[in-house]
Design goal:
The chain is of the alpha/beta class. It has 15 helices and 13 strands. The radius of gyration is 25 Å and the shape is elongated. The model has no long low-confidence stretch (mean pLDDT 91).
Amino acid sequence: MFALSFPPFDLPEAAYVFAVPLLLYGLFGRPAKREGLQLLAAGWLSWLVLIVWLRNCTLALDMPLAGAFGWFITLALALILAAFWSAWCLAALKAARLARTQPVISRLFMMLGMAGLWVVLEWLRGWLFTGFPWLPLSTSQWQRPLLLQIASLTGGYGISFVLVCFNFGLSFYIFTLWHNRKASWLKRLSPEFYLALAVLLASISFGLQTGGTTQRGRIEGPRLAFIQPDIDIDQKWDSERVGQTLDILEDLSTYAEYLGADLVLWPESPTPLPVKGSPSMQRWVENLSRKLQLPILMGNVAREELEDSDGHQWYNAVFVVGPDSGVDLDSYYAKRHLVPFGEYVPLAGWLPFIRKFVPIEGDFGHGLSPRVLDLSGVVENGGQVGNLICYEDIFPSLARANVRSGADWHYVATNNAWFGEEGGAWQHAAHSVLRAVETRRPVVRCGNAGWSGWIDEFGHIRHNLLDKQGSIYFQGVDTARFTRNAWWAGRLSPYVRYGDWFVWTSAGLVMVAALLVRWYSRRHRAAAATGP
């Protein structure tokens, strides 16, 4: 049920009950041998089902056993993710068994503490081992805007908290009904369930009040053209197919002009040569923009010459191209959070046989600031755009930094073609929905082959590129009018302003619950030793 909660399965209701069988086992059953190992194996299998698409990431590598290396990465990462998952499950089992002997107040804080522990573990997953906060429980609700709205206060962590609370509350309710089935109706009441239900209803009520149904007026922006070139990974780096790649970009961008676009969007580094560091590539892009009389916001690669040596440094970047001004080579956004083994090799001295996925000599450099790009000079009502490249939109701190630096909207330039046509792109898009609600800024996405579209400040998907079969994986172009909420323009959401305060609150609940359980357990043992 945990795996089914997320895309591509999209059964979000399963997130409300995924832990119920485990908790009921703790409440009714007895400890069994090797529970920890069994939970780790179950978590490993669940995560493997969710990230099995990752195995495709090495297929384009020119190295022996590239496919086997992809499976190794997938299995290893699934095991790391399962370690966090199984740690919570073990703690939840222990909490459920202790709950049978605890008073009501202790059980209530135990429930809140276990929901807090889930939040803390999700937060840790975003920082340890370079950070991989993929598919927090909150992303299961990416198409349920009512519950999403509390993310503007708590971040996505608040949604995860609510869901885990409900799992605990429902489990306690079932246990209470069965355990006291022959007692009076008063004995069958479950304070834990009513508290969990109150937390859920309060969150939904907040969503009803703030979910953008009235919209409070919108600022009309440019008509965006989403270019999906669907360039194969092998083709992009093939010097003999450079002309074919550029023809695809030119044809699609020309059609965007026909569709009435005001701003053309290109995905993550679609050109075969860097726009900065290759004069011929720069001229080609500038000539195209001038010919179409359309500005282009594009992912691309920058090659900076190093002043103190004969070498150079690569950056994964976003550039603005104006029909009159050309490519702004000085003010571009450089990616801040690089992909391990994709853009650099961790512990390269210890792993000399491992190569990056991107076939560029040397590691990429990382950007040092959000560097918001000003589009007001090239397109009417373009505003200030904060950029997120590749998987940067899974990190809440990067999106918050964009807004604190003045971003009016986010642009995600990505390329999920590395991972095949499975669930990876859908899962990736779910994180962008959270970033939109957390920051109260629209998120515009352009993928090499999908997911492309835009999401408003309240998590509503306003436009998504789909083919006639309903697939996101295709080559094409489409346009959509982009708007921004007038009330939130220039305002900071509580989550942007105060950051991860809810994580620290959750950590406090964990500590209070642990202290209460410890105190009541000592008291219970002392009473048992004294006797009647």
